[in-house]
């Protein structure tokens, strides 16, 4: 990863800054990170090597810009115009700018910015719901060709589906916090954000666990060198149109434990077979009901991103629909939340059989209760 830091030093402005790594690193060598100064690499994009080629020639084409400060920091206002000149000149590079100051963007762009430049990606960081609801409407309203969101450090569950559904955000990245005072990151928040990205077909990267990671209610301390590999191994990153969800390691829930949890849910336990449903089952027979269940699962649930996910299962009209709501098999989000079957992948034959089995089990238990 190639980096261009035209200036160094920053000022903390939001909860995500509390344990800023720039402050941590500078503090360890007795330097004051709040002092902002231009670096010796200020003009790096123009620097040439002995052979006359540009020194800044990233392999993947991307240069992460201003990683030890914020590109839109007010203390750097007088230096920014020259940076835009260099960015304009180096159209061969994608300059990726990550900021917590998206609200200063409009007053910081050059006069010929127009609808945005193809070689500039702007990422707004959103560490919690409050900052997401403040920054993302601004990000969406601005003339930017490439927009991304970075939830790092992720400090709580963040819901951003209403911003993703516009189709203007190209990528979402999330991760925990590192360092000795790291705040915890919970896998459930990662899973929920992933589900939202899957539903809007937005690529999602779970970049790193952070130093304190919560999984299934247990808190783990993760060594620095394991934070990225563990996130990678979890398989939670998602690229639309690929089988990325296949790599997620998951365990189907124990049946009795599942039914116990379902009975504790006010919403799920509201669903029961009506007299009409019971009569329908007795007329058709269990084999036919099972065949209907298989068909509904295959048609409405099995695709990678089913259309209208969350709304594909009617609330009444067939006993299998009732069973689907009661047993949390009604949409891909519920399958992930209750059954650990990840969204963003096609359901395998065995997963479909498992779901059919759960539904038939629920129907049999329901019938036997009278
Ligand atoms: S904006 Fe970024 S670089 Fe600046 S203090 Fe906050 S976390 Fe650190």
Keywords:
seven-stranded parallel β-sheet; single chain; 36% helix; alpha/beta; elongated; binds iron/sulfur cluster; 12 strands; 370 residues
Report on the structure:
The structure is a single chain. The chain is of the alpha/beta class and 370 residues long. The chain has two domains: 2-247; 255-368, no CATH class. The protein has helices spanning 21-28, 77-89, 129-141, 161-164, 187-199, 224-234, 255-263, 275-284, 286-301, 319-326, 332-339, 349-368, and strands spanning 2-4, 7-8, 37-38, 62-65, 94-99, 120-125, 146-151, 169-175, 185-186, 204-208, 212-215, 218-221. The strands form three sheets. Strands 1-4-5-6-7-8-10 form a seven-stranded parallel β-sheet. The mean pLDDT is 96. It binds iron/sulfur cluster (SF4). Iron/sulfur cluster (SF4) is lined by residues 10, 12, 16-17, 20, 22, 69-70, 100. Residues 10, 12, 16-17, 20, 22, 69-70, 100 line the site of iron/sulfur cluster.
Topology pattern, helix = H, strand = E: EEHEEHEEHEHEEHEEEHHHHHHH
Bound molecule kinds, no repeats: iron/sulfur cluster
Count of all domains: 2
Mean pLDDT score: 96
Inertia-based shape? elongated
Helical segment tally? 12
Provide the helix percentage. Answer: 25-40%
Strand content: 5-15%
Helix/strand/pairing class, anyone? alpha/beta
Low-confidence stretches: none
């Amino acid at each position: 990863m190639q980096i261009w830091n035209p200036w160094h030093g920053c000022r903390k402005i939001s909860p995500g800054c509390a344990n800023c790594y720039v402050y941590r690193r500078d503090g360890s060598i007795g330097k004051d990170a709040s002092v902002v100064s231009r670096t010796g690499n200020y003009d790096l994009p123009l620097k040439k090597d002995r052979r006359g080629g540009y020194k800044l020639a990233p392999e993947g084409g991307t240069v992460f810009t201003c990683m030890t400060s914020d590109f839109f920091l007010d203390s750097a206002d007088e230096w920014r115009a020259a940076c835009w000149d260099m960015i304009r000149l180096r159209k061969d590079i994608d300059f990726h700018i990550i900021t917590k100051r998206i609200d200063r963007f409009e007053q910081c762009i050059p006069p010929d910015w127009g609808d945005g430049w193809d070689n500039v990606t702007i990422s707004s960081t959103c560490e919690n719901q409050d900052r997401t609801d403040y920054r993302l409407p601004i990000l969406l309203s601005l003339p930017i060709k490439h927009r991304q969101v970075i939830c790092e450090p992720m400090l709580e569950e963040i819901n951003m589906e209403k911003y993703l559904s516009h189709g203007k955000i190209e990528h979402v990245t999330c991760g925990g916090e590192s360092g000795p005072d790291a705040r915890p990151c919970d896998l459930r928040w990662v899973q929920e954000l992933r589900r939202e990205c899957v539903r809007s077909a937005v690529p999602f990267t779970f970049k790193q666990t952070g130093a304190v990671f919560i999984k299934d209610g247990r808190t783990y301390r993760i060594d620095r060198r394991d934070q990225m590999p563990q996130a990678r191994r979890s398989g939670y990153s998602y690229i639309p149109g690929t089988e990325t969800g296949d790599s997620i390691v998951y365990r189907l829930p124990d049946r009795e434990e599942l039914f116990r949890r379902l009975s504790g849910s006010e919403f799920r336990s509201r669903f029961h077979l009506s007299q009409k449903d019971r009569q329908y089952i007795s007329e058709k027979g269990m084999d036919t009901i099972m065949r209907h269940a298989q068909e509904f699962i295959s048609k409405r649930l099995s695709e990678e991103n089913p259309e209208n996910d969350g709304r594909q299962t009617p609330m009444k009209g067939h006993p299998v629909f009732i069973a689907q709501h009661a047993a949390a098999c009604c949409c891909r989000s519920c399958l992930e939340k209750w059954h650990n079957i990840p969204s963003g992948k096609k359901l395998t034959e065995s997963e479909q059989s498992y779901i059919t089995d759960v539904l038939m089990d629920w129907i049999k238990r329901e019938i036997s209760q009278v």
